[in-house]
C-alpha cells in the first residue's frame, strides 16, 4: 500500500512501485519510474524521466550532534532532482541538495544536505558526499570515494575508487579546530588516483594528476603529476592528456 499526499503532484506516465511514501508538496514530473519502498520527503521536486530505484530516500532532513563542528542548516530548502537522472538502490539524498540533469547516483551512495551536483556527473557506488559541497558537471567519482564537508570540485574532475579527503587538521582536538574547517578544492580537469588521501584545505589545480596511493600535504600545481607520501612532483602531465586536447 502506498501513501501519496493529496497535496503532491505526480506527472503523467509515472510508474510508482509498492510501499512508496510521497510526502506533502512533492512534485514529480512525467515519465518517471519510482521503485519499491521509496520515500520522497516534503517539498522535494523531481524532474521528468527520472528513475529512483528501490529503498532510496529523497529529501531527508539532516541530523546534527551537539558536538558537531559543522554549522547548522537552518531553513533548509527541499531537494531538487534534475530531469533524466538515475538514482540507484539504497541511495540517500538529503534536503537542500540540487542535483543537475542526466546525473547518475549509484547504489548505496549518500549525498548530504546543501550539496550541488552539476549535469552529467557520475557518483559511483557507495560514494559519500558530505554537506556544503559543490561538485561540477561531467565529473566521475568512482566507488567508495569520500568527499569531506566544505569541498569544491570543479568540472571534468576524475576521482578513482577509495579516495579520501579531510577537513580537520586538529583531528577533533581543541576549540581552535572550529575556526579552521576547510575541505579540499579540485580544479577543472583534476584527476586523483585510487586510494589517494587529500589533507584539509589542499588545492589540486587545473589538469593536475595525483598518483594512486599518494598523500597530498601541499597544494598541487596545474598540469603536473605528483606521487608519494608526501606527494612530490614527478613530471608534467603529457600534452595529449590535457583537457584542452580531448
Provide structural commentary:
There is one protein chain. The strands form four sheets. Strands 3-6-9-12-15-18-21-24-27-30-32-33 form a twelve-stranded mixed β-sheet, with no helix packed on it. Strands 2-5-8-11-14-17-20-23-26-29 form a ten-stranded parallel β-sheet, with no helix packed on it. The chain has an eight-stranded parallel β-sheet with strand order 1-4-7-10-13-16-19-22, with no helix packed on it. The chain is elongated and about 60 Å long. Helices cover about 0% and strands about 30% of the residues. The mean pLDDT is about 95. With about 250 residues, the protein is mainly β. The protein has strands at about 5, 10, 15, 20, 25-30, 35, 40, 45, 50, 55-60, 80, 85, 90-95, 100, 105, 110, 115, 120-125, 130, 135, 140, 145, 150-155, 160, 165, 185, 190, 195-200, 205, 210, 215, 225, 230-235.
Category from helices, strands and their pairing: mainly beta
The 3D shape can be described as elongated
Instruction: Return residue spans where pLDDT drops below 50 for at least 5 consecutive residues.
Output: none
The helix content is under 10%
For the biggest β-sheet, the strand order reads 3-6-9-12-15-18-21-24-27-30-32-33
Radius of gyration: 19 Å
What summary fits the major beta sheet?
12 strands, mixed
Distance between the termini: 50 Å
Amino acid at each position: 500500500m502506498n501513501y501519496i499526499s493529496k497535496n503532491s503532484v505526480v506527472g503523467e506516465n509515472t510508474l510508482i512501485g509498492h510501499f512508496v511514501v510521497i510526502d506533502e508538496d512533492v512534485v514529480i514530473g512525467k515519465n518517471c519510474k519510482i521503485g519499491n519502498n521509496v520515500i520522497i520527503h516534503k517539498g522535494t521536486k523531481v524532474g521528468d524521466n527520472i528513475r529512483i530505484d528501490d529503498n532510496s530516500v529523497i529529501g531527508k532532513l539532516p541530523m546534527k550532534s551537539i558536538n558537531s563542528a559543522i554549522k547548522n542548516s537552518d531553513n533548509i530548502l527541499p531537494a531538487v532532482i534534475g530531469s533524466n537522472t538515475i538514482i540507484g538502490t539504497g541511495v540517500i539524498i538529503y534536503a537542500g541538495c540540487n542535483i543537475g540533469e542526466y546525473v547518475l547516483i549509484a547504489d548505496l551512495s549518500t549525498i548530504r544536505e546543501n550539496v550541488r551536483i552539476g549535469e552529467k556527473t557520475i557518483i559511483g557506488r557507495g560514494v559519500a558526499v558530505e554537506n556544503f559541497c559543490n561538485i561540477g558537471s561531467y565529473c566521475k567519482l568512482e566507488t567508495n570515494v569520500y568527499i569531506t564537508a566544505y569541498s569544491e570540485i570543479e568540472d571534468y574532475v576524475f576521482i578513482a575508487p577509495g579516495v579520501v579527503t579531510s577537513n580537520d587538521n586538529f583531528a577533533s582536538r581543541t576549540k581552535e579546530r572550529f575556526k579552521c574547517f576547510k575541505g579540499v578544492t579540485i580544479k577543472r580537469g583534476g584527476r586523483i588516483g585510487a586510494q589517494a588521501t587529500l589533507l584539509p584545505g589542499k588545492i589540486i589545480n587545473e589538469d593536475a594528476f595525483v598518483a594512486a596511493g599518494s598523500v597530498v600535504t601541499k597544494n598541487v600545481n596545474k598540469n603536473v603529476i605528483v606521487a608519494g607520501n608526501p606527494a612530490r612532483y614527478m613530471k608534467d602531465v603529457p600534452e595529449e592528456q590535457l583537457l584542452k586536447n580531448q
